[in-house]
Write a structure and sequence with these properties.
With about 110 residues, the protein is an alpha+beta fold. Helix content is about 25%, strand content about 20%. α2 links the parallel β1 and β2 (about 55-60). Keywords: Membrane, Transmembrane, Transmembrane helix.
Amino acid sequence: MCQLALKSLPSEVYETKWDLIMVDAPTGYHEEAPGRMSAIYTSGMMARNREEGGETDVFVHDVNREVEDKFSTAFLCDGYMKKQQGRLRHFRIPSHRGSLDKPFCP
């Protein structure tokens, strides 16, 4: 399992069929803060793992910051980005369950 994955959340979080995930934490604006890398990565994996045929809208706030910008485009994928308005970026990620040949990013 990837070191970026959040592994300590309650099982209900991983088992829920999320229609929308908002990434706006943890704090990432100063050096001592943990940042949002794990939250961005985990939200992308949960979206890809939802039941076949479903899509999950993922919103990432503060994409004006380097970590949020780079990690959201890497793990949520430019090809899935629907819109950016100011510091908020919207991705629509389809299920990858049952599609072993589907690339991570389009």
